[in-house]
Amino acid sequence: MRAETLKGHLDALLLAVLADGPRHGYGVIEVLRTRSGGQFDLPKGTIYPALHRLEQAGLVRANWSQDTGRRRRVYELTPAGRRKLGAERTAWQEFATAVAALLAPPGAESENGPAWATS
Amino acid sequence: MGDELIRAYLSELDTALAVVPGSARARAAIVTEIGDGLADALTDQLDRGCPPTEAEQRVIDEFGDAALVAAQFVPVLTAEQVHRSALILLRTGPLVGALWLATTLLAVPLGLPIVSPVTVTAAIMVAVALVTAVPCSVFALTVTGHGIRWWPVSSRRAAAAALIAAGEVVVSDLVLLIALGTQAPALLSEPSRTGLGVVLAGLAALASLIRLTLTARNTMRLRQSRAVLGTA
């Protein structure tokens, strides 16, 4: 998937990846890639500035760790980051529902609403 | 195992990040972090059976152009710089202001001729600085910190606000120092009587000089960073 397509969603995706627990930059990149089935295979170097932006906004906090014998920066969600993720999830559900309703093929709607909504 | 390509990549990244002046520590941290990611990616490639020479090139390709990565860090580094600059102004403001206020208040009972065209001009400049520099600094501090969650503002605009604040502070400090210079003969005429006034005035002048130096340096850096953002 092209990087432009993800513009505007990258912050929420990174917050979602960090919701499971602290990760270092490359760990975030790998989870993003594997959980998207390889769809979100962005230039890896561009993930780091995005993580730094989230840190400046207070949505994630970063600490240096030396557990593996190598200095690495580990990111974790802050309480504000968790709240933001919740809000992003809600907004996405509403958006996805509205888009799916409009893009559903003709005839896919039943009396009870769109087929996807009743299945 | 050689890692010439990765070293060259990190060196290129470091050079590209150096366009943001005064960011040496932050720059080094970024290079360390990206280097750590590259090392992880290289290990991944080797574990998958990729030949070492090919693995390194593949990792570099995956990370993307070093100049592109650096360009995305420029607003981040600039925001850090703006934040620091605004913080310095807001933290030093009350101390410097209190020293000058104490000096002025002490000058009255000492019978010093504090009302002159220069001192009145200085007072007006300080008032203008308070009215403009404080809101500009607070704005710059907010939009380069956690406040950006609610108030998304570009680093370039935040830098402009910090520059306005810094300019006001530089001018008011200079005018205050000139005003003190005009009062110096009267202040030093009877040191036995004006001793405390001399000490306070000296401290105020020193505080202003230190702030002037810091602010002038930050102003130059902010101007350079803003110019870089304008061309990015």
How would you explain this protein's 3D organization?
The complex is a heterodimer of chains A (119) and B (232). Chain A is an alpha+beta fold and 119 residues long. Chain A has six helices and five strands. In chain A, strands 1-3-2 form a three-stranded antiparallel beta sheet. Chain A is elongated and about 60 Å long. The two termini of chain A are 28 Å apart. Chain B is mainly alpha-helical and 232 residues long. In chain B, helix 1 packs antiparallel against helix 2 and helix 4 runs antiparallel to helix 7. The longest helix of chain B has 42 residues. Chain B is elongated and about 85 Å long. The two termini of chain B are 36 Å apart. The interface between A and B is medium-sized, with 24 and 29 residues.
Descriptive labels:
heterodimer; A: 119 residues; alpha+beta; three-stranded antiparallel β-sheet; 53% helix; elongated; B: mainly alpha; 84% helix
